[in-house]
Design a protein that fits this description.
With 683 residues, the protein is mainly beta. The chain has six domains: 9-162, Jelly Rolls (Sandwich), CATH 2.60.120; 180-265, Immunoglobulin-like (Sandwich); 275-357, Immunoglobulins (Immunoglobulin-like), CATH 2.60.40; 364-471, Immunoglobulins (Immunoglobulin-like); 486-575, Immunoglobulins (Immunoglobulin-like, Sandwich); 591-681, Immunoglobulins (Immunoglobulin-like, Sandwich), CATH 2.60.40.10. The strands form twelve sheets. The chain has an eight-stranded antiparallel sheet, with no helix packed on it. Strands 22, 23, 25, 26 and 27 form a five-stranded antiparallel sheet that branches. Strands 5-12-7-10 form a four-stranded antiparallel sheet, with no helix packed on it. The protein is elongated, with a radius of gyration of 57 Å.
């Protein structure tokens, strides 16, 4: 209860607030000054009537409405028939559900923003009570309480309180304001401060932090709510930037949005880290490849190398990203590596040390080529790193085919006495060396040479071999043109004969037929025969009475020949027999036929199938016919139809060309148009 204090007549005008128990007492002020009460303190006015008319007899401040009067409540007021009015305008924060509770003897009325919410307004002999639940919007609102005492005991009580049950309160508190952060570099701490939240049901605060460039917030204020308006946190002096925000939490457990983000950057005294330094490869031409990892950006890297695990280390490569190639790593030695990472603040960190035993430099061998001059030898070329030894050994093996084992065996192996010379440095990252093996002799027809190259360092150590290259070597002179080339027309094809070449290194003969299509300068390859054979029969060309020109070309074991133009190959011309049947095959044939000379006998194998455009299923068999020049007719070879799709003609005479028809028999007894084929049988 806040009993009204009496004041002197000189001080009865206006008041300046000082706290005295629950009542904020008034001190003297000029009569013309208005009484003001700091929110959420009520402004209280006493009236000598219950209609609140006229000028208030007294005005002061009251921080709670909970009074009982047994007599006059203030000087100049009667003990009955008086009125008291309380009013306050305050910020309700986010608003939400509230309970308005009033009790009185006699009358009480409660207004929210001028709208009546409680009305117990009559003269009673006992205390009356009422509680009303309301939802107050966010922001500032005005409460007014009117009390009337008509007769008898005077008591009044009023309170407004937020309803904090989670099932009722669904309104989040407002985000805190006035947030700011400062970093104490000496203490290594960030300190965040903010203004007190205006929520009436505030339970406390939580502080969150996220790294700049990221979106995930992490609570850093612990599991308990903060009740003050400041928070300090130790941060590693890494030079990283962080954002802070504070959020309010009400008694229903609802959390507000974050305050305005506050940026702080720590001092940078933390050396960067480098992990997973790995040797991922070693190229004889390019160098030792290394890679590493770091979770930090904007770092400058240097690759350091030493010949001992503990150093001293020297810079092998600089201005790197997350990998490097050390082209200068010594061959045949073990090198030790580590990576130095420097951040923009000048802090430097180092990776763990890794080692790599680099083998002796192996050349990249890429060329073997006959010199254009006859007997000039074989040109060889290879690439090496410019940091590799410049002394080389060229190895050569001669391989011969062993008829007994069916394999190639090494019959001679030696180091070639050629003198390597540096011929190209254009690429910068590799040097090219070459030499000529002038000791080589033409390889035999059943053999070839295999070359490889090694490096030799200052200690006389020889590297592993390069890749090998197989090479056949011979002279640059083509065999002489063949003589005695003739072409004879027969019924089974054109027989081509010539004199055997006297060339000692002859490998084979190739025979060609000049095509009559296009411009008449295209060759059709008739066949190849090995040295020692000087005959071939062109039985694949239909004997249809045409004239053809044939060429024969001798090829030696070095691949030399005269196959450049018709002018430098031996030719002969022949006019074929015309053995074609005088009865033409219809163009609407149903059966597609193939005829071949049977292996090892003077018989003809015939096979056929139906045209892909035929979709019927009424075929009962086939008839096979052969052309008889004597009767000038196709004659059946069997009395009964053939039920399959193949037939072997064992009665075909050798030494001539045979022509065939095959027809299909339908279920209605009709016979399809024939398909044809031909084959030449040698004598």
């Amino acid at each position: 209860m806040n009993p009204a204090r009496r004041t002197t007549a000189a001080a009865a005008g206006a008041v300046v607030l000082t706290t005295a128990g629950g009542l904020l007492a008034a001190t003297a002020a000029p009569a013309s000054a208005a009484t003001t009460c700091a929110s959420p303190v009520f402004k209280r006015q006493f009236f000598a009537n219950t209609a609140f008319s006229g000028t208030a007899k007294k005005t002061d401040c009251d921080n709670a409405i909970d009074q009982t009067w047994s007599g006059a409540p203030a000087s100049g007021l009667p003990k009955d028939n008086f009125g008291v009015r309380w009013s306050v305008t305050r910020d309700f924060g986010s608003g939400g559900p509230f309970a308005l509770t009033g009790s009185a003897q006699d009358g009480i009325r409660v207004y929210l923003d001028g709208v009546r919410k409680i009305s117990l307004w009559k003269n009673v002999s006992s205390t009356v009570r009422q509680t009303v639940n309301v939802t107050i919007p966010k922001g500032k609102h005005t409460l007014r309480v009117d009390y009337a005492n008509w007769t008898g005991k005077a008591t009044v009580k009023f309170a407004y309180t937020p309803r904090t049950s989670a099932t009722v309160d669904k309104v989040k508190p407002l985000a805190p304001t006035g947030a700011s952060v400062a970093y104490d570099s000496a203490a290594g701490k960030a300190k965040l401060t903010w203004s007190k939240n205006k929520e009436m049901d505030l339970a406390g605060y939580r502080v969150y932090r996220r790294a700049k460039g990221y979106t995930d917030w992490h609570r850093v204020s612990g599991t308990s709510l903060l009740t003050g308006t400041s928070f300090a946190e130790s941060l590693v002096a890494s030079g990283h930037a962080h954002y802070y925000e504070v959020r309010a939490v009400d008694k229903a457990g609802l959390e507000s949005a974050g305050s305005a983000d506050q940026l702080v950057t720590t001092a940078d005294r933390l050396a960067p880290t480098v992990t997973d330094l790995t040797v991922y490869g070693d190229s004889a031409l390019d160098g030792v490849g290394l890679s590493w990892m770091s979770g930090e950006g904007s770092l400058t890297y240097q690759l350091l190398r030493s010949d001992a695990p503990g150093g001293p280390f020297t810079v092998a490569a600089r201005n790197l990203s997350n990998s490097a190639t050390d082209a200068t790593a010594p061959y045949g030695e073990t090198s030790y590596y580590k990576v130095a990472a420097t951040d923009p603040a000048g802090n430097t960190g180092y990776s763990a040390v890794v080692s790599h035993a680099r083998p002796l430099a192996v050349p990249y061998f890429w060329k073997t080529e006959n010199r254009p001059e006859d007997g000039g030898g074989i040109d060889l070329a290879w690439d090496v790193s410019p940091y590799a030894p410049a002394e080389f050994r060229v190895h050569r093996d001669e391989h011969r085919f062993d008829n007994a084992t069916g394999t190639f065996d090494v019959v001679d192996s030696q180091v070639v006495p050629c003198a390597p010379t540096l011929t190209d440095t254009a690429y910068g990252t590799r040097h090219t060396y070459s030499c000529t093996d002038t000791t080589v002799v033409p390889s035999p027809s059943d053999g070839f040479y295999v070359y490889w190259v090694t490096t030799v360092d200052a200690l006389g150590r020889e590297s592993a071999p390069s890749q090998t290259v197989s090479h056949g070597y011979g002279d640059a002179t083509a065999p002489p043109l063949v003589t005695g080339f003739t072409a004879t027309a027969t019924e089974y094809g054109t027989v081509l004969d010539w004199d055997d070449s006297p060339a000692a290194d002859l490998a084979e003969y190739n025979v060609f037929r000049l095509s009559t299509v296009d411009d008449g300068t295209q060759y059709t390859h008739v066949g190849t025969v090995k040295a020692g054979t000087s005959r071939i029969v062109d039985s694949a060309n239909l004997q249809d009475g045409e004239s053809h020109t044939y060429f024969v070309d001798a090829v030696d074991t070095s691949g030399n020949s005269n196959y450049t133009s018709a002018d430098t190959m031996v030719s002969t011309t022949v006019t074929e027999y015309d053995l074609r049947p005088t009865v033409e095959t219809p163009s609407d044939w149903l059966v597609s036929v193939d005829a071949r000379a049977a292996d090892g006998s003077t018989a003809v194998d015939l096979t056929w199938d139906l045209s892909s455009s035929y979709y019927g299923d009424d075929i009962t068999g086939y008839r096979v016919y052969r052309w008889n020049p004597a009767t000038a007719a196709y004659e059946p070879l069997t009395a009964d139809p053939v039920t399959g799709t193949s037939y072997t003609d064992t009665t075909a005479a050798a030494g001539t060309t045979h022509f065939y028809w095959v027809t299909a028999l339908h279920t209605d007894g009709t016979e399809s148009a024939p398909g044809d084929a031909w084959v030449a049988l040698a004598p």
